[in-house]
Amino acid sequence: MNIILLGPPGAGKGTQAQLMVARYHIPQISTGDILRESVRKETPLGMKAKSYMEKGQLVPDEVVIGIVEERLNDSDCHSGFILDGFPRTIPQAEALQKILQKMEKTLDHVLNIEVDPEELVRRLTGRRTCKLCGAMYHVIFSPPKDKDLCDRCGGPLYQREDDREETIRMRLKEYERQTAPLIQYYQTKGLLRSIDGIGTQSQIFDRIVQTIERRSF
Question: For 171-200, how does the pLDDT look when each residue is reduced to its tens digit (9 = 90+)?
Fold first, then answer.
């Protein structure tokens, strides 16, 4: 079973992907993770990626696509995969299609976790991080005992720049700009499955399972 997982920042893709890994025994392939792993292993494509990352530049599509193709050819992907963070654009989706054709594979589902933007802002702006140990809290969902101090080490809590409202709204706009055409692309192919991303982790996962298994069997 070959799956793409879409969803804006804060939609809970990483959590749901891990639950899917446990249920279906197929790997989660996160673009960020495989880029870092290729750099760590010093593969030819990894070294190319590193040269851009060290300059703070975006890694070009052709390098990202090459690294994704290498990962999809690993033995643990023979029974399927969950792509998280790729593709992000129509050119990447078209490149993925060519990769899968070479591998004689097809996509089964493109799951799009939908969450209202204001809810995403509420989720993401509530995050707090300990300056000393890096522990994460949320002012609503998992608050510390003292709003300004870490339960674990007593260090001061702060709001990362990435978690500020202005930054989050910019990220959401960019995601919408890039992903709206992608959603239409997969909708036209009959692969898009919309998942309501409001509720508990288990409720959202139940919706994913029902969607996949209703269409797979």
Answer: 999 999 988 899 999 999 999 999 999 999
Average pLDDT, stretch 151-179? 93
Q: Which residues fall within 8 angstroms of residue 110, CB to CB, at 6 or more apart?
A: 3, 4, 6, 186, 191, 192, 193
The residue with tokens 């990626």 is: 49
End-to-end CA distance of the chain: 12
CB 112 within 8 A of CB 197: no
Domains of the chain, CATH where assigned: 2-26+79-116+168-216 (3.40.50.300)
Q: Which residue has the tokens 């997969």?
A: 186
Q: In what order do the strands lie in the sheet with 2-6?
A: 28-30, 81-84, 2-6, 109-114, 192-196
| Omega prior to 87 cis, within 30 of 0 | yes
Closest of 66, 11, 20 to residue 212, by C-alpha: 20
| Active-site annotation, residues | 13, 88, 127, 160, 171
- Measured CA distances, 143 to 12, 64, 148, 197 (Å): 18, 37, 10, 22
Q: Which two tokens stand for residue 204?
A: 């959202």
The pLDDT score that the predictor gives to residue 148 is 96
Buried b / exposed e over 89-118, threshold 16 CB at 10 Å, is eeebbebbeeeeeeeeeebebbbbbebeee
Position 64, amino acid: V
Full-model pTM: 0.86
